Each structure stands twice: as C-alpha cells, then as structure tokens.
UniProtKB/TrEMBL annotation:
<dbReference type="GO" id="GO:0044780">
    <property type="term" value="P:bacterial-type flagellum assembly"/>
</dbReference>
<dbReference type="InterPro" id="IPR003775">
    <property type="entry name" value="Flagellar_assembly_factor_FliW"/>
</dbReference>
<dbReference type="Pfam" id="PF02623">
    <property type="entry name" value="FliW"/>
</dbReference>
<protein>
    <recommendedName>
        <fullName>Flagellar assembly factor FliW</fullName>
    </recommendedName>
</protein>
<dbReference type="InterPro" id="IPR024046">
    <property type="entry name" value="Flagellar_assmbl_FliW_dom_sf"/>
</dbReference>
Length: 144
C-alpha cells in the first residue's frame, strides 16, 4: 500500500489549519453506525479544539465527540497516510488536514488523543475518513 504525508496549509492564524463547519464521513466511525454527517463547532478562539456533533437519521440520538488539530500538542506528528485514505476523501493530499479524536480528562486520568487513527479531512468539501496509520503512534497520547 503506498502512502503520503499530509501537510497542513495556511488558514487559521494560530494553527494554520482550516477546519470545515461540517464533516461528511465516507464511512461511519467504528462503533457509530449511521453517523456520517457531523456539525463542527470550534470551542476555542485559536482553532485547536472542536466539538463534532452528528446529524443522525430520524429517531437516532446525536453523538458528540471532541477533536483537536494535533500539531500544537504533538509538533512532530506527521503520520504517513495511505493513498487509499487520501483517495477516499477526494482532495489533493497537499490540501488535506488531520484531526485527532480526544478522550476528555476523567478524574485523575488526563485527556488523551488518538494519534493512531486520525481523521483525514478535505477542508474545502468537508469529506473525511478515519484511518489507522501503519506507524507506531499511540492510541491514547496524553495532551500536554
């Protein structure tokens, strides 16, 4: 399987990343069948922390997850993303951005980020896919 490194492009003054207001997942996230459309809300003024809330089918309950732009917390994070993931999103690799799902802090346990399975996002169309990278990135990296 061939791979490419997703590079960030200039958009937000602090992060350099443009996060769209809606994500259109090409496939549901594991454990969340039927949830492929998510509204995105920035939770800070610097464009790092975002809530994504699903727009579920009739009768289903919405799901809320937290995602971050990883570079402010993990400056060396530059995983190789499969060309299959890039193709699934449909945008050119140089335009794509990465977001990582965050598990909030719980009592003595710190907030953690899933660096093993980032979301690959086309910031222009909102198309997104979660992919597991072939590198040794942690599933639960503590946020500093």
């Amino acid at each position: 399987m061939s791979q490419t490194t997703v590079t960030e492009h200039q958009a937000h003054p602090f992060t350099g990343v443009h996060v769209p207001t809606t994500l259109h997942l090409r496939e549901p996230l594991p454990g969340l069948p039927g949830h492929t459309e998510f509204d995105v809300t920035s939770l800070d003024d610097i464009g790092v922390l975002h809530a994504i809330r699903s727009v579920p089918a009739a009768g289903a309950q919405p799901v809320r997850l937290f995602v971050v732009v990883p570079q402010p917390f993990f400056p060396d994070y530059a995983p190789a993303v499969s060309t299959d993931a890039v193709a699934a999103v449909g945008g050119p690799a140089e335009r794509l951005v990465l977001l990582v799902v965050v598990h909030p802090a719980d009592g003595p346990h710190p907030a953690t980020a899933n660096l093993l399975a980032p979301l690959v996002v086309d910031p222009v169309t909102g198309a997104a896919v979660q992919t597991v990278v072939d590198e040794d990135w942690p599933l639960r990296a503590p946020l500093a």
